[in-house]
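The records we work with from here on pair a chain with its fold. These numbers are not coordinates but entries in a learned vocabulary of local backbone shapes. To see the layout at work, look at the sequence and tokens printed below:
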Amino acid sequence: MGKSSKDKRDAYYRLAKEQGWRARSAFKLLQLDEEFNLFDNVTRVVDLCAAPGSWSQVLSRVLIKGEKFGRTAWQDTDVKFRRQMLHIFDDQDQGQDSRTRGGDDDDREPDTPRQPRADVKIVSIDLQPISPLPGIVTLRADITHPATVPLLLKALDADYDDTAAASR
């Protein structure tokens, strides 16, 4: 990310730095996921022109580590906090029913937690070097060069046989 004074005034630039993201573009991918559920049932991702790696960083944290961000993370935290408070009050108000304590809103289940997914493969490709990320295969290659395709396929599937594909 650039370091000009204009960049430093940008709210998302500062927020990205504070939250440990490599670039402000991480917020755009998180926003798109929140709006369109991009990561549902995803197990294979290729991040082209990936440097500095902020989208790969988001993918690593969401798909591999199972972290939640945005509204769903906040809602789950809110529900957990309410439940903790209700359990405290349950101990103090053993004779009262739930209607006199706070209603049925507090009994809702939090969204299904995002879990780390099995068999996720994420490959990031760029001409520029990319710092390593947990669970991400990074390739320093030219995406326009035909020799990159077998490298990518091998990174996605360890059993990929380049010689068998060439003979077809």
